């Protein structure tokens, strides 16, 4: 009897690999930067000129392809490439980590844990309904009375997913969504019945599924739907139902990114470090589309695999998500992030990344 034993590589770790430079790019650097700048829409260029005084810099140059090819030859399976971080994340056999760390063009290796429509003319005064106390507490009503509704502004929302349009709450019927993408499971949707847009920065992804109401019997959390949290956050910004519920910036254009996984397949709440990876991808994607403001009601400190960031790491320079947020800010994007609500076993502070930036 002839027995053939098939041995396959075991990919039991996901890593970020950061490079020392952008490689031996051919041609003049200034010419390359100009060429890259020409790929962005005019609205992105205008915002960058205001913030940076130039349409692009070295950070916008592509990651050097031969570096990635060298990693592939050692068994690395790239998942996402980041120009700003000058690195690539993906799957890597544990026994190859030290070998990759010794490559002359590798700076660092870090483990990643896995487990529309238009609005009517603004009436004066607006009837805010359930939002009246919140709106007037922040004097947003005064801005609305002056005619400011967010029109002409592109707002990105990074969260768990979103239910809007036909079949959703009436306040979410007329949201003007110009782009949307699911960074958790790129083969699924940001809301029921939606069409997925997979950003070209995603090299590959693993198959997945949405966890929708009724599919996880062990759910004990207050929200029993993947999209609940994101939908509520979106409504505060974009909602419009006169006399019932009106948001802060109901006239803005929205870019929606699903970056957060709420439950595992058993219905238990999870906090995975790969969600930080998703957020970074979403930020580069949204920035390339000309986003002006990003609202992110998620943040990270501790993860399911017991790894995470310490209080000392909350210095604005250590967490990868914070570095990405700072990179976006340097390009003229206003990043508004939740500070965090960690308590109990984290006595030092409740702050989470990227709010430490």
Provide a concise account of the structure shown.
This protein has helices at 29-37, 42-52, 65-73, 97-101, 132-137, 140-145, 228-238, 274-288, 320-330, and strands spanning 14-19, 77-82, 87-91, 106-112, 154-159, 176-182, 240-241, 245-246, 253-258, 293-296, 334-337.
Folded structure, characterized:
By secondary structure, the protein is an alpha/beta fold. The chain folds into 2 domains: 99 residues, no CATH class; 206 residues, 3-Layer(aba) Sandwich (Rossmann fold). The protein is built from 9 helices and 11 strands. The strands form 3 sheets. Strands 6-9-5-10-11 form a 5-stranded parallel beta sheet, with helices on both faces. α8 runs parallel beside α9. It is globular. The N and C termini lie far apart (64 Å).
CATH architecture of the largest domain: 3-Layer(aba) Sandwich
Name the CATH superfamily assignment of the largest domain. Peptidase S8/S53 domain
Overall pLDDT metric: 78
The H-and-E topology, N to C, reads as EHHHEEHEHHEEHEEEHEHE
Number of helices: 9
Domain Peptidase S8/S53: 150-354
Protein name: Peptidase S8/S53 domain-containing protein
Pfam family, one: Peptidase_S8
GO biological process, one term: proteolysis
Descriptive terms for the model:
single chain, 357 residues, alpha/beta, Rossmann fold, five-stranded parallel beta sheet, four-stranded antiparallel beta sheet, 9 helices, globular
């Amino acid at each position: 009897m002839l027995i053939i034993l098939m041995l396959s590589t075991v990919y039991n770790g996901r890593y970020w690999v950061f490079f020392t430079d952008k490689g031996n790019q051919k041609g003049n650097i200034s010419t390359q930067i100009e060429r890259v700048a020409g790929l962005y829409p005019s609205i992105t260029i205008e915002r960058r000129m205001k913030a940076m005084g130039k349409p692009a810099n070295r950070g916008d140059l592509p990651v050097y392809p031969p570096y990635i090819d060298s990693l592939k030859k050692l068994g690395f399976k790239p998942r996402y490439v980041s120009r700003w971080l000058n690195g690539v994340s993906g799957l890597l056999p544990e026994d190859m980590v030290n070998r990759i760390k010794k490559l002359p063009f590798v700076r660092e290796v870090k483990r990643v844990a896995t487990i529309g429509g238009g609005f009517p003319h603004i009436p004066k005064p607006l009837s805010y309904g359930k939002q009246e106390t919140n709106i007037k507490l922040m004097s947003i009503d005064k801005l609305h009375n002056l005619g400011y509704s967010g029109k002409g502004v592109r707002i990105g929302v990074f969260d768990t997913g979103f239910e809007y349009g036909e079949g959703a709450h009436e306040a979410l019927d007329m949201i003007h969504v110009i782009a949307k993408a699911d960074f958790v499971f790129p083969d699924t949707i940001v809301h029921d019945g939606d069409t997925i847009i997979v950003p070209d920065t995603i090299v590959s992804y693993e198959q997945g599924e949405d966890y929708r109401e009724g599919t996880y019997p062990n759910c004990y959390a207050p929200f029993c739907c993947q999209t609940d949290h994101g939908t509520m956050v979106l409504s505060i910004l974009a909602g419009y139902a006169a006399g019932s519920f009106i948001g802060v910036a109901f006239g803005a254009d929205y870019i929606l990114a699903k970056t957060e996984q709420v439950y595992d397949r058993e219905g238990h709440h999870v906090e995975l470090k790969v969600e930080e990876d998703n957020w970074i991808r979403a930020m580069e994607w949204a920035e390339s589309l000309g986003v002006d403001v990003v609202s992110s009601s998620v943040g990270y400190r501790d993860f399911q695999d017991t790894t995470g960031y310490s209080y000392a790491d909350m210095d604005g320079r250590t967490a990868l998500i914070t570095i990405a947020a700072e990179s976006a800010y340097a390009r003229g994007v206003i990043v508004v992030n939740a500070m965090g609500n960690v308590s109990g076993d984290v006595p030092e502070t409740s702050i989470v990344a990227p709010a430490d930036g």
